[in-house]
Amino acid sequence: MSQNVRVDAAQCTGCGRCLEICPMRIFQPGGQGSVPAIGPNAEKCIACGHCVAACPGGAITASGIGAASLQKADISLLPTYDQFAALVAQRRSIRKFKSQPIPQEKIDRLIDLLRIAPTAKNLLPLQWTVVNNPESTHRLAGIIVDGIRSRDDAKPIIDAWEQGYDWVLRGAPCLIFAHTDETSNWTAFDSSIAVEIADLAAPLLGLGACWAGYFISAAGVNPILRSALSLGAADRIGAALMLGIPDDETYLRVPYRPEPAVRYLEP
Ligand SMILES: Cc1cc2nc3c(=O)[nH]c(=O)nc-3n(C[C@H](O)[C@H](O)[C@H](O)COP(=O)(O)O)c2cc1C
């Protein structure tokens, strides 16, 4: 991926930070004076934008994007470790939702946030599908249930459905999922990172969220579901999240989790 990186000699302070920061080592020391040159690795640029984001002089432009058009980093906006730890600990899978769709503005904020999620080689392969309508999510859940009716292990899910309880999408009025085309080698990783960021962010927008594992499994194999989702043969679903406004589901405590198994290897 060649990104057409330029260094404005008039703005360059010669600090050399770009040489240190670039993961693909596209900068070379001083072409003219201390201004870095762009070397043969330019072809390997992954367009991560780190050079533009880090340059103290605002001298670097990559594919026409310069420092002036970037959001400023502001560490005063960061949560403390304890605040972040509280968010991680107090986030819960929510499975009781009000039936109304979620406000579009909240979906827009979530999807916009996910632009910045890391992806392998910064390839940014994710596409998003949003189903924000309780009748539609109910219909999708019904297709999934129909697809597993012959499986013995699905009996509790089928029985629940017949009794009016949606075990598959939990009655969530909204479902979002991340997908890529077949050229991505990292669909599950890239999608899961972004979906977990959405899962963590949801309560901060007054939303409840829950990973949609039954949906993810079914979307890989159920042709009726894939057709209902307008997915082509080349589309790969990586991760999915149910969303909605929580209906009186709150937790007074953080559930117990055992100590993680950790190995420290010493040479
Ligand atoms: C990959 C993945 C798939 C999941 N799929 C479902 C699902 O289909 N339905 C559901 O109710 N919960 C699902 N969950 C939620 C887990 O059951 C839940 O995270 C776990 O019980 C721990 O509870 P907590 O999220 O509140 O900490 C899934 C979670 C993950 C990470």
What does this 3D model show about the protein?
The chain has 267 residues and is an alpha+beta fold. The chain has two domains: 5-69, Alpha-Beta Plaits (2-Layer Sandwich), CATH 3.30.70; 83-244, NADH Oxidase (3-Layer(aba) Sandwich), CATH 3.40.109. Helix content is 31%, strand content 16%. It contains nine helices and nine strands. Strands 6-7-9-8 form a four-stranded antiparallel β-sheet, sandwiched between helices. Strand 2 (27-32) and strand 3 form a beta hairpin. Helix 4 crosses helix 7 (187-201). The longest helix is centred in the last third of the chain and has 15 residues, at 187-201. 27% of the residues are buried. The model has no long low-confidence stretch (mean pLDDT 96). Flavin mononucleotide binds next to strand 8 and helix 8.
CATH superfamily of the largest domain: NADH Oxidase
Figure out the total of helices: 9
The CATH architecture category of the largest domain equals: 3-Layer(aba) Sandwich
Provide the CATH top-level class of the largest domain: Alpha Beta
- The Cα radius of gyration reads 23 Å
Number of strands: 9
In which order are the strands of the major sheet placed? 6-7-9-8
Strand content range: 15-25%
Structural class: alpha+beta
Sum up the overall morphology in one term: elongated
What ions, cofactors and ligands are bound?
A: flavin mononucleotide
Mean pLDDT: 96
